Amino acid sequence: MSVGETCNFGVLTASDRASSGEYEDLSGPAIEEFLSQALTSPWKICRRLVADEQSIIEDALKSLSDDENCSVIITTGGTGPAPRDVTPEATEAVCERLLPGFGEQMRAISLRHVPTAVLSRQTAGIRGSTLILNLPGSPRSIREILDEIFAAVPYCVDLIGGPYITTDSKIVDSFRPPHARRD
């Protein structure tokens, strides 16, 4: 993919209550706000708000990846131990390969802020040329995590065949090995 190509980002909120209108989704907009501050290359958002049902989440992930051509999908919600928290299972079901380092690092970041981060089942994986990341449902946690892990996202997208993503180094200092930079 080339420099300057628009990168489609999928933002998927998995929440029974937000999807039914019981309360406003604040998590999806928190992800979008981060992206608006961090990204300097062309990008577009594709949003989904779905109930905590594994088959519905799987269908939404497939649609964002396969139909909307999202290079990155960031999910929020459904990563805890409650019976209806099934976002990691849906992610694992649609991905060809998992990237356990993302989940490990996301939990490590959250553990610096709350002891219950050990309950999180956040994960990440690859579907075709799409990176899928599972974040928790708290807007504060979303920002804490994205501020740190997003540095690895642009190079990961390079490696799986997506567009060249650039960031504002004051927000996220993306890392690429010297041989991979296109300055």
Task: State the secondary-structure class.
Answer: alpha/beta
Taken together, the total number of domains comes to 1
Mean pLDDT: 95
Strand content: 15-25%
State the CATH superfamily name.
MoaB/Mog-like domain
Number of helix segments?
7
The level-1 CATH class: Alpha Beta
Question: Could you characterize what this model shows?
Answer:
The protein is α/β, with parallel strands linked by helices and 183 residues long. The protein has one domain (7-180): 3-Layer(aba) Sandwich (Molybdenum Cofactor Biosythetic Enzyme, Chain A), CATH 3.40.980. Helices cover 37% and strands 18% of the residues. The chain has 7 helices and 6 strands. It has a 6-stranded mixed beta sheet, sandwiched between helices. A hairpin with a 2-residue loop joins strand 5 and strand 6. It is globular, with a radius of gyration of 15 Å.
Describe the protein's topology.
Elements: E1 7-14, H1 16-19, H2 27-38, E2 43-50, H3 54-67, E3 72-76, H4 87-94, E4 97-98, H5 100-111, E5 124-127, E6 130-135, H6 139-149, H7 153-159
